Amino acid sequence: MRYLTAGESHGPQLTTIIEGLPAGMPLIAEDINIELARRQKGHGRGRRMQIEKDQANILSGVRHGYTLGSPVTLAVVNNDWKHWTKIMGIEPIAEEAEEEIKRKVTRPRPGHADLIGGMKYGHRDMRNVLERSSARETTVRVAAGAVAKKLLKLLGIEIAGHVTEIGGVQSKVDTYPSIKEIQQITEQSPVRCLDDEAGQKMMDAIDLAKKNGDSIGGIVEVIVEGMPPGVGSYVHYDRKLDAKLARAIVSINAFKGVEFGLGFEMARKPGSEVHDEIVWNKDNGYERSTNRLGGLEGGMSNGMPIIIRGVMKPIPTLYKPLKSVDIDSKEAFTASIERSDSCAVPAASVVAEAAVAWELAAAIVEQFYSDRLETLKATIDEYREYAGKF
């Protein structure tokens, strides 16, 4: 499985083409739109969320509600495009109208891709960079992830994400209920937090940051149940499942770190308090008495819940902008402001779910025969039975 995304933040639409889905998988637009709506929620979101009501159109690869095995195209129209047709138009513009129409950006924003992206591609107008580097692109990453989540669910694998920290405020809930309960509780929380008291403090911190023209980041956690053991590989570095998951998390806009299970806390503990003892019983087969390693050993899933966390830095677009340098005049300026959120951590937890779902689904499709959903399900069931009796 693989996918490619295309589109600019203020362009006419965002598009993704997905290849490698099994044929015969049920898929309708609503499966995707539910996830797109989840991404747009959250305390601290900016005005863009009131402008855009993201809806996916399935343009290929699906007939009468089932995948065909051919590439699936998903498109999300940008409703705000009507206000940007001149600035972001495809056709050439007259030279005398260029400055008026293009709204040229020459002041790179600290923390963004503006300056380095301009250097890389030779863009003197940094709108050419910021339009694509925008987190708006995660819209269609969530769409692709929604398709992956649907496939995983059909294979008995469930995913839930939640926020554990925002702006230094930490959730006190350190043991999680069932996946279903996490999904229910977080959907009712404006910050997707399992701890109501901490959730309120997080919202207060977001409000204070907004009042001060600042932004704050946080930590999200994704939990996966039902993943069969042995997906991934210990043989080659580029096939290790934890490596793929780590790459997926830090590829999300503004994410700067990732950990599994106990994560960096392992550096402060002896091995006896890090590794998970193996147990076996007739009903469930092999299990671990703890899950400190987060469901991954030797680059493979071990059958325990996969637990992965990512840290999101504060959004760098600030309403009290930091200093920068105009690339044309080389004079010091305060950085230009694009419409932004004061905190996007709750939405980022939805994006993280999508990123994790995609990597897990892709790893399964790579490892097992997957041309037909019916055969894939039978193969996974047979493999689970084998692993339990090993």
Automatic annotation (TrEMBL):
GO MF assignments: chorismate synthase activity
Pfam families: Chorismate_synt (PF01264)
Keywords carried by this UniProt record: Amino-acid biosynthesis, Aromatic amino acid biosynthesis, FAD, Flavoprotein, FMN, Lyase, NADP
Pathway: Metabolic intermediate biosynthesis; chorismate biosynthesis; chorismate from D-erythrose 4-phosphate and phosphoenolpyruvate: step 7/7
Family matches, as CDD domains: Chorismate_synthase
Annotated function: This reaction introduces a second double bond into the aromatic ring system.
Entries under HAMAP family matching the protein: Chorismate_synth
Protein name according to UniProt: Chorismate synthase
